[in-house]
Every structure is written in structure tokens, then in C-alpha cells.
Amino acid sequence: MARIAGINLPSNKRIEIALRYIYGIGPKLATDILVAAGVDPNIRVVNLTEPEVNKLRNIINDTYKTESILKRDILLNIKRLRDIGSYKGSRHAKHLPVRGQRTKTNSRTVRGNIRKTVGSGRKPATQKT
Q1: What is the pLDDT of residues 89-120, one digit of tens each?
Q2: How much is the pLDDT for 128?
Q3: Same domain for 8 and 60?
Q4: What are the beta bridge partners of residue 44?
Q5: What count of Cα atoms within 13 Å lies in the side-chain half-sphere of residue 92?
Q6: 60 and 31 in a common domain
Q7: First to last CA, the chain
Q8: Nearest one of 6, 66, 68, 60 to 37, comparing CA atoms
């Protein structure tokens, strides 16, 4: 079992798919990493040799932000937006959609109003909307 960036990669998957289990690595970045390392994308994680795993680990750790470093940077960016008082920062603080989506409908999960059945979570009829 290969361990890269603190994540145990699933051993029965192709390496191209398994790299996506690391936070911050998507389809395009996974193929770029494999090309840089010279590893066949169709090989299974079980069949990787130790030098190939080390090469992948070095490329990911040296070149890309992943896992906790990336999460910390995202949180610091949101904190910076809140501190400077920007509109996006205020939307983050209020737990509302940030990118201009409508809120009358379609933002239940962001607002915390998740309805399991019809009518549950809805405001009472007497309350002003």
C-alpha cells in the first residue's frame, strides 16, 4: 500500500485514479504528475515499485500544495476576506452563497435548511418570510 502526502492510496485502483484521493489533486494534475514521474497511468497501485512511489512522493511534496497546507491556505484566504470587510467575506461569515447565486430557492444546504421530507424545515405560515 502506497502512502503519499499522508494518504493511503487504495491498492486495487489504477494510479491515475488513486492519486485523486489526495486533497488538491484532480484528473489533470494526476496525469501531469504521472508524466513528470514517467509512470504508466494504467498500472495498479499494488504493482508500483518503491522507486516509483518515492518519485511520485517527491514530485507531489516539492511541487504542489496538498492536504493540510492547501486547506490552511484556503482558510487563511477566507479569514483575510472577512478581516478586510469585503462582500465575499461577509457572505462567508453569514454562511450564504458567495458567488452570486440566488437564495430564495436552491441554497438550502448552505443555509442549513435541509429538508428530508416535503414541508419539513419550512417556516411556519404565521412567520414572515
Answers
A1: 999 998 888 998 888 887 777 777 777 766 65
A2: 64
A3: yes
A4: 14
A5: 16
A6: yes
A7: 54
A8: 60
Q: Can you give the pTM of this predicted structure?
A: 0.73
Map grid coordinates 454562511 to a residue. 95
Range of the domain at 53: 3-64
Interhelix angle 27-37/50-63, nearest 10 degrees:
120
**In angstroms, how far is CA 29 from the centroid of its own chain?**
13
Query: What CATH number is associated with residue 103?
Result: 4.10.910.10
Which amino acid type is present at position 40? D
**80 and 60 within one domain:** no
**Distances from the Cα of 37 to the Cα of 55, 66, 80, 112, angstroms:** 6, 17, 36, 43
Query: Looking at the 3D structure of the chain, how many domains does it have?
Result: 2
Q: What is the pLDDT of residues 69-78, one digit of tens each?
A: 999 999 999 9
